[in-house]
Amino acid sequence: MNEVELLFAEDAPAPSYEVVDLGELVPGGPVSATATAINKRGNVVGWYYDTARSENRAVLWDLDFVGHEVAVELDTPCAGICLRRHAYALDVNDHDEVVGYRQTQGGQGPRAAHWRLRSARPLPGQQADSTSYAINNEGDVAGYEFQWLSTSPGSSYAYRLHWEAARNGALLDPAITSSNGNDVNDLGDVVGRFFDPSAQANRPFFYRAHNPNGQAGETLSLEQGYASGYATAVNNARLIAGVQTTAGGVNHATVWRHNGFIWLPARLDASASGVALGVNDLGHLVGHRDGTTAVLWRDGSAYDLNQHIPAADQAEWQLREARDINDRGEIVGIRTP
């Protein structure tokens, strides 16, 4: 699989895109690659597989002064006698600060990785292993800690790392023994999922950065007929993207809005299974159906992105998954030949 960037044509009556294959910009060309996030300048992060080093390499595709994408590796290669190290970039803010994780091939667990940050973001440090999933424009980071190969593998703790030293490295709710933070908006709100032991199921949560009632988190409602769910992304208007899952294991892409009392879920595709993975500040969402078709949800309509790229690209590629969308309407994701 290779990662792609879709550039939106604003004046089209319906979504219309040109496609940029970012994989071709890596010297020698990767065998496979994944794009995970895009910022407002159009810079993209993700990783590719380096066949020469047998490593997954974290990379930032940066716009140069003439508008071309240039691949910049975020880690230096493993040199001499050392364990091969994989690195994965998962999110980038508008200052090109990047988060993700690293992992060796020696059986050790992942370690959260923070590249280009203006100042350190120390982890809570209560568990040995960690992953940072998201970073906002204030430099706040969201992710989770856990114990790799633990005797209680379900134990994980969502965290939010704040730029203020006194509030840095805090678990969102230490009393919850299975949770993770998937995204953080510029207000410092975090969304993700936690395991509800009473229901024996994952539930989506919203953690308000400045909560007047002092509660650590708010559980997002599920529609009737759904047994579990999780939140994947949140924008600055507190619109939340994610998924609801039936007892039979069928996923439906979902958006949550707050009505002043509770979080109201709404399925984005009533009949199609899928997951919503990204949302911009205009309320446009992206994700996939069944992991095979990249989708844009905009203004009450769902668009199969494969039908909104040039015919030559439609014949050559299958856009499988849309991971993120910025406020210019540019989308990143993965495709297969």
In short:
The protein has 337 residues and is mostly beta strands. It is built from one helix and 27 strands. The longest helix is centred in the C-terminal third of the chain and has 6 residues, at 311-316.
Characterise this structure.
This protein has 1 helix and 27 strands. By secondary structure, it is mainly beta. The chain has a domain at 1-76 and 83-120 and 288-337. The radius of gyration is 19 Å and the shape is globular.
DSSP strand (E) fraction? over 45%
Discrete helix count = 1
**Termini distance?**
7 Å
Uncertain spans: none
Shape field:
globular
The average pLDDT is: 86
Q: Give me the secondary-structure category.
A: mainly beta
Number of strands: 27
Query: Oligomer, anyone?
Result: single chain
Rg, alpha carbons = 19 Å
What does the main sheet amount to? 4 strands, antiparallel
- Largest sheet: spatial strand order: 2-1-27-26
What is the N-to-C succession of helices and strands?
Answer: EEEEEEEEEEEEEEEEEEEEEEEEEHEE
Helix content: under 10%
For the structure shown, list the relevant keywords:
4-stranded antiparallel sheet, 337 residues, mainly beta
